[in-house]
Write a structure and sequence with these properties.
- The protein has a single domain, classed as FAD/NAD(P)-binding domain (3-Layer(bba) Sandwich), CATH 3.50.50.60.
- The chain is 23% helix and 19% strand.
- It is built from 12 helices and 22 strands.
- The strands form 5 sheets. Strands 1, 2, 3, 9, 10, 11, 12 and 22 form an 8-stranded mixed β-sheet that branches. A 6-stranded antiparallel β-sheet has the order 6-15-16-17-14-20. It has a 4-stranded mixed β-sheet with strand order 5-4-19-18, covered by helices on one side.
- Helix 1 runs parallel beside helix 12.
- It is globular and about 70 Å long.
- It is an enzyme of class 1 (oxidoreductase).
Length: 571
Amino acid sequence: MVKKMPKKDVVIVGVGWGGGIIASELTKKGLDVVGLERGQERTTEDYFMAHDELRYAVRGELFQDLSKETITFRSNSGMRALPMRQYGSFLMGSGLGGAGVHWNGQLYRFLPYDFEIRSKTIDRYGKDKIPGDMTIQDWGITYDELEPYFDKFEKMAGVSGEENPFGGKRSDKYPTPPMKHSPQMKMFKEATEKLNYHPFTVPSANLSEPYENPDGISRAACEYCAFCERFGCEYGAKADPVVTVIPVAKKTGKFDLRTHSWVRRVLHKGNKATGVLYTDVTTGEEIEQPADIVVLTSYVFNNAKLLLNSEIGKPYDPSTGKGVIGKNYAYQVIKGNATGFFEDKKFNNFAGAGALGMVIDDFNGDNFDHSDVDFIHGSYLSLTQTGKRPIQSNPIPSDSPTWGKKFKENSLKYINQTLSVGAMGASMPFKQHYLDLDPMYKDTFGDPLIRMTYDFKEQDRQLAKFTARKAHKILEEMGADRVESMEELGPYNITTYQSTHNTGGVIMGDDPNTSAVNNYLQMWDMENLFVVGASAFPHNSGYNPTGTVGALAYRAAEGILKYNKDEEMLA
C-alpha cells in the first residue's frame, strides 16, 4: 500500500546544483519544500584525508551504481542498444550534491552567440551553413537576459577569475581574484600571446582566497592538492551544493531533505502535476508526496526518463522530427587536443586544482570567421593543471612499447615531462541524436532505462581536426621537443572517459512545438512542473556547462516564485 505524505508547496527531485539552488531560493521566501535525493547524505567530513585514487577515481565511490540504474547506448537507430555496465565516457554522480560534488570546478558563461545560435549563424553565413539534419535552434532567451543570473551564481560560488576578452558583457567583476599561475600556465600564456591569441585564467569555483558569499556562507581557500575531479573537497574550497546552497535551505527550517528516496513517477491529473511517487530504498516502501509545484532537478538522463515514464510531454520521433521529450541530445567534442614531450624540462604535474589553468577563446563560438571551415561553433583551448595521479596518468610517446623495461623507463621519465593542450568542443544537435525509453532493459525497480542514440558527425570530425592543429601549434611555440596530436576523430566510444557534459532531452525555447520548457524552464504541457538542468540546453557549447546550469536554475527559482503567486504560465 502506498503511503501518502502531507501536501507541500514544492517537491524537488534530485538535490544537486539545480535542486540545491531551487531549495535555497524558495525556502528563503517561506515556501515549504521537500527535496528527494535517491543517494545518501554527504558532508565535507566524509572526505577528510580521502586522497585515495583507487577508491574514488578508479572504483567510483561517488558515482551511480550501474547495477541498479544505467543507460543503454547505440550509435544509430538501426542498432540494438546495450547497457553501459562500467563507467567510461561520463560519470554520473550519486548522493547529496550529485555530480556537483565530484566536478572540477571550471565555471564558464556560455557566449551570447549560444543563446541565439540559429539566428546569428544564418545572419552571418546564410541558411546553407547549417546542415539539413542539424537541429540547432535559439534558446528563447538572450545572454543579456540571463546575465544577472550568471552574476548571482558566481557570487554564491565565489568564482575566482578574470574577464574573458571574448565573453559577453558583465555587470560586475568576479568576486575573487584568479588562481595562482604555475610555470606551465605562464608558458602557455607567453606562447599564445606570441601567436596573437588572448589568454586568460580559467574561471574557477576552487577559491583563490577565503570568501564569504551573500548568503553568509564562509569557505576556505584552495590548497592546490589536485584531488578535485572524482573527489569531494575536504576543505570546502571547491564550491559544491553541499557547502553552499543546501546549508542555506536547511537553516530556514523550511527544507525537508529525504535521502535514499528514488522517485519513479511524476503524478498528474489533467494538465497539472499533483506530486511524485517514490520508493524509500532502505525499506522498499512506496510513498506519495503531493505538492502544488513539482521541480525535476536530477541529471540529464533522469529528467528525460521521469517524463517519459510518467507520460508527460510528447516523445521525440526522429523519423518525423516531431515531439520534444528526448530531442536534441548533445555531448561534447574534446578529442581535438595535443600532447607535448619535453626532453630537458621537468614540471610538477602532480600538484594543481580542478580549475587551475589558462585558456584561449579565439576559436570558440563565432569568435572567428567560419566561412572557410566545414563546421559551426568551436572550442576553447586550454592548458589545465588538474593533477596527474599515478594510476590513471601514464603519458608516453606513441611509439613506446606497451610493456617491459623501455615502457617503465618512459613512464617514469615523461610523467613530469609532458604538457597537454586540450579542447572543449561544442556539440551540435542532429535529428538522429536523441533519448528515448529502451524497450528491453529496465532498472532495479522494473522501469525502462533511458536509451541514448548518438555518434560523432562530420561537424564534430572537422572541429576536432581544426582544434588539434591549433593545439599542436601552441605546444610547438611552448618549446616541446615532440608533439603528438589527434589526426582523425573516430566513432564515439562510450567506454573511454571524455566528459560528464551530457545535455538536452527537455530543451527550452519559445515554441511549444519545438521545445519542452519555456525560458523559466516551466513545461509548456504542465504549468506547475519545472524541469531544471542541462537537459534544457538545445545544444552544448564549447565550455563546461555548470555555469549556465546554475544561471538557469536561479532564473527558474524566480519563475517558480512568480508562478506560486499568480498560478499562470510565465511569459
